[in-house]
Design a protein that fits this description.
Length: 144
């Protein structure tokens, strides 16, 4: 499927670049590339062998976040994955990153061992059954 282009920009993408299961021993080979692509912002995952231990977000630098985790003896991990998120405006990219992390942590069961805090969607509202009127969504009722 071809990317949609508008005003010289590709639309519809959320993840610009990614790489799965990079051995921690190879971090130094990847860190500059991670930093330079999309300002190194997005999501990352830490694994112990093939077991997912942590899903994190980085609105400034994935490279720095992974390096911080490498220095924490309580979090021994063997591999990491990176998912660099698109967005030319910092605020929009940050909201997208936070929503993606919330989505992953709401879907992944069981929750990764090192993810303890609750994560919420940015400005999203939970669907409520009270929004239905006679089986129709409120917008459909007004249009009828």
């Amino acid at each position: 499927m071809a990317n949609v282009v508008k005003n010289g920009k590709k639309l519809g993408r959320v993840i610009r670049r990614y790489r799965n299961a990079i051995p921690i021993e190879e971090f130094s080979k990847w860190e500059d590339l991670i930093r330079t692509k999309v300002r190194g912002c997005g999501l990352y995952a830490l694994y112990r062998d093939e077991y997912l231990m942590y899903v994190g977000l980085a609105t400034k630098s994935i490279r720095t976040r992974i390096r911080d985790h490498m220095g924490d003896p309580k979090k021994p991990f063997t591999h990491f994955s990176v998912f660099l998120v698109t967005g030319s405006k910092t605020a929009a990219r940050t909201r997208r990153i936070r929503d993606l992390e919330a989505l992953l942590l709401n879907v992944i069961k069981p929750r990764p061992d090192w993810n303890r805090s609750k994560t919420h969607f940015v400005a999203a509202k939970k669907l409520q059954i009270t929004e239905l009127t006679n089986g129709l969504a409120p917008d459909a009722v007004q249009a009828a």
